[in-house]
């Protein structure tokens, strides 16, 4: 696995073609109102609907070996990986570089998934169900990791890469420190990559990345402050690079009520204020913040339509679509009410 590559600065940045492709791909996203209708369907009905969309190829292919919610999960992740790989194929130079750096989050996702699977004794097949080869690590390499017997073997497979130092933090007892180190590595790399571009769009992408870091830190504060975890532990789990990092660090360890009062007036407050006032779950708050991020990504893209930003908006929307579909079918498989599932859906 190569280290950070630099795009060919100085050459014309070719965004017209890829942004045109993205506009066409955006029209195939599932309309928001369809999620409400899916809540009233059973899993076979949802599957039949998805066969009428861009997921048809994956569903038809995987229906030979899978059914029910498992079929939908396999098919949506496979389609997500295919879609993101398509974006990489149709981009060159700076666009390709920035897309790949952003999609490395799926490398992190896959590494975490494999580590968790090994930690809890899951089978190779169960681990593979949740892998999304949409980043730089290809399916063959990931399958090899999934087949390893122990976590230590997975760690050694990354010797000589950027991931190795983070992975060596595994102490044999908990994965949280490793997962936090991987997240910090991803955002460090992302900030470094975006900060090295010369385009205005690159600067706006950095603005989005910092907003995303703030949202992730905010969710961490909601979870940990609500659980009464001490400030030092929370601060160690906050990601660096966000615009609000210092302010959020001061909120770590506050009583939940004090913490919530301190959030009033922030730009994101309008997206979550009603849920917080109702005493809603952190997962509901997280869904609202995710929707806020999707809107923010598309709002940024309006500033520079011939830049990386419309591509970012599509990437974020596609990931959200797949997440919503999976939440709905998982909830139905678990027998949850439509109201409870709806709380988790990002709309």
Automatic annotation (TrEMBL):
Sorted UniProt keywords: ATP synthesis, Cell membrane, Hydrogen ion transport, Ion transport, Membrane, Transport
Gene3D superfamilies: ATP synthase (C/AC39) subunit, domain 3, V-type ATP synthase subunit C domain
Membrane topology: Peripheral membrane protein
Compartments where located: Cell membrane
Principal subcellular localization: membrane
UniProt cross-references to Pfam families, sorted A to Z: vATP-synt_AC39
Annotated family: Belongs to the V-ATPase V0D/AC39 subunit family.
HAMAP family for this protein: ATP_synth_C_arch (MF_00314)
Subunit structure: Has multiple subunits with at least A(3), B(3), C, D, E, F, H, I and proteolipid K(x).
Protein name as annotated: A-type ATP synthase subunit C
UniProt organism field: Candidatus Methanocrinis natronophilus
Gene: atpC
């Amino acid at each position: 696995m190569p280290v950070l590559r630099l795009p060919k600065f100085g050459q014309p940045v070719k965004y017209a073609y890829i942004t045109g492709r993205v506009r066409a791909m955006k029209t195939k996203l599932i309309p928001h109102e369809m999620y409400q209708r899916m809540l009233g369907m059973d899993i076979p009905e949802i599957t039949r609907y998805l066969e009428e969309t861009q997921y048809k190829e994956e569903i038809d292919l995987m229906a030979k070996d899978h059914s029910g919610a498992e079929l939908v999960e396999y098919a949506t992740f496979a389609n997500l990986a295919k879609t993101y790989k398509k974006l990489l194929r149709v981009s060159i130079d700076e666009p390709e570089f920035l897309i790949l750096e952003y999609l490395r989050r799926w490398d992190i996702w896959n590494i975490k998934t494999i580590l968790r699977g090994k930690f809890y004794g899951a089978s190779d097949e169960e681990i593979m169900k949740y892998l999304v080869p949409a980043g730089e690590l290809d399916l063959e390499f990931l399958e090899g990791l999934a087949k390893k017997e122990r976590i230590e073997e997975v760690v050694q497979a990354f010797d000589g890469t950027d991931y190795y130092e983070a992975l060596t933090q595994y102490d044999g007892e908990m994965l949280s420190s490793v997962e936090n180190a991987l997240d910090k590595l991803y955002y460090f790399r992302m900030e470094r990559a975006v900060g090295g571009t010369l385009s205005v769009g690159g600067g706006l992408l950095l603005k989005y990345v910092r907003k995303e870091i703030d949202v992730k830190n905010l969710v961490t504060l909601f979870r940990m402050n609500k659980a009464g975890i001490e400030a030092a532990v929370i601060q160690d789990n906050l990601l660096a690079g966000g615009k609000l990092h210092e302010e959020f660090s001061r909120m770590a360890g506050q009583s939940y009520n004090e913490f919530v009062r301190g959030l009033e007036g922030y730009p994101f407050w309008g997206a979550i204020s009603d849920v917080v006032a109702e005493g809603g779950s952190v997962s509901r708050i997280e869904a609202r913040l995710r929707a806020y991020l999707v809107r923010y990504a598309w709002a940024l893209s309006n500033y520079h339509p011939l830049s990386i930003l419309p591509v970012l908006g599509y990437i974020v929307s596609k990931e959200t679509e797949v997440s919503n579909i999976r939440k709905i079918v998982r909830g139905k498989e678990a027998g949850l009410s439509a109201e409870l599932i709806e709380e988790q859906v990002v709309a």
